[in-house]
Amino acid sequence: MRHMLNPLDFSVEEIDRLLSLASDIEHNLPKYAHVCDGKKLATLFYEPSTRTRLSFESAMLSLGGSVLGFSSANSSSAAKGESVSDTIRTISCYADIAAMRHPKEGSALVASQMSSIPVINAGDGGHQHPTQTLTDLMTIRSLAGRLGNMTIGLCGDLKFGRTVHSLINAMVRYPDIRFVLIAPDELRVPSYIREDVLKANHIRFKEVNNLDDAMPELDILYMTRVQRERFFNEEDYIRLKDCYILDKKKMKLAKENMYVLHPLPRVNEISTEVDSDPRAAYFKQVQYGVYVRMALIMTLLEVEKPC
User: Fold this and answer.
1) In the chain, where are the structural domains located?
2) What is the per-residue pLDDT across 263-276, written as a single tens digit (0 to 9) for each?
3) For residues 36 and 62, is the Cβ–Cβ distance under 8 A?
4) What is the mean pLDDT of residues 237-246?
5) Are 77 and 104 in contact (CB under 8 A)?
6) Which of 2, 17, 51, 173 is catalytic?
7) Which of 3, 39, 53, 101 is catalytic?
8) What is the pTM of this model?
9) Are the beta carbons of 25 and 295 closer than 8 angstroms?
10) Domains 7-128+289-301 and 131-286 share a fold
11) Which one of the listed residues 52, 131, 133, 163 is annotated catalytic?
């Protein structure tokens, strides 16, 4: 039995196979409509979510399975003080696979150690968000045609953004990757990412404060929102939230084949005027997320690919 807690849980070869399965699902959706008949997915969301939770539910329903679970800690026995360990042991009696989001780092690992069904980490605090990373990889591969030999700009909240941390961890395994880290000093990428991931893997990167200057060299621009819920001080949030806003003027500085990604939800860091630009890929990203999660559910449940 396998779990998906971290993007590094799967080798590059295994991720390539999973992305190829997701691509086949995208182009042959009807043939996958019943591969998980009789299977149940439990969605254990202790933290608010729209896209991730509904994407998991859409994925399982599209495979012919069913879904049960809760969408907030207040609607579960966690409100009564039940531990994650006890919850997952109980859920293991009801479902075949579980997707869990929790505000505390390491919670998915704890759940996996006590679970008798596969556990998918749907986000644990500011730590990891592996299925978003798989979605990002599929989006990049599908649109750019490759996962190596590119310059990736990461912009906004690089300190608390779990999607950013997961994507860096995943992309350093591909050849000739370079990062441009665009953030205010207060929201720079954590030192453990800088030292233990980027420098340890001899990845070329630079840290800058100005988005405009970075635009011309990027193949991918990954925008993130400044997350209010990650701040202890409301004044710091208000001061920093509008630091980087992508608009048509900035897009004119970019390559014609540069794609913009965003894990969503956005606030105002990408102007709606950018939505009509063919390089805006963030809503395509949402759709790719369903296909990736379908492929992951099949892989963890060891469901055979239909002929």
Assistant:
1) 7-128+289-301, 131-286
2) 998 888 999 999 99
3) no
4) 77
5) no
6) 51
7) 101
8) 0.91
9) yes
10) yes
11) 52
Q: How far apart are CA 293 and CA 129, in angstroms?
A: 13
The per-residue pLDDT for range 57-104, each reduced to its tens digit, is 999 999 999 999 988 666 555 655 678 999 999 999 999 999 999 988
39 is catalytic: no
For residue 259, is pLDDT > 70? yes
Q: Does domain 7-128+289-301 have CATH number 3.40.50.150?
A: no
Distances (CA, A) of 38 to 32, 43, 116, 206: 14, 16, 18, 50
Please say if the pLDDT value at position 130 is more than 80.
Answer: yes
Active-site annotation holds for 129: yes
Question: Is the previous residue joined to 130 through a cis bond, with omega within 30 degrees of 0?
Answer: no
For domain 131-286, the question of CATH label 1.20.1080.10 is answered with: no
Reply yes or no on whether 43 is catalytic.
Answer: no
Catalytic status, residue 80: yes
Catalytic residue among 3, 39, 127, 129: 129
> What pLDDT score does 91 carry?
95
Q: Any catalytic annotation for residue 52?
A: yes
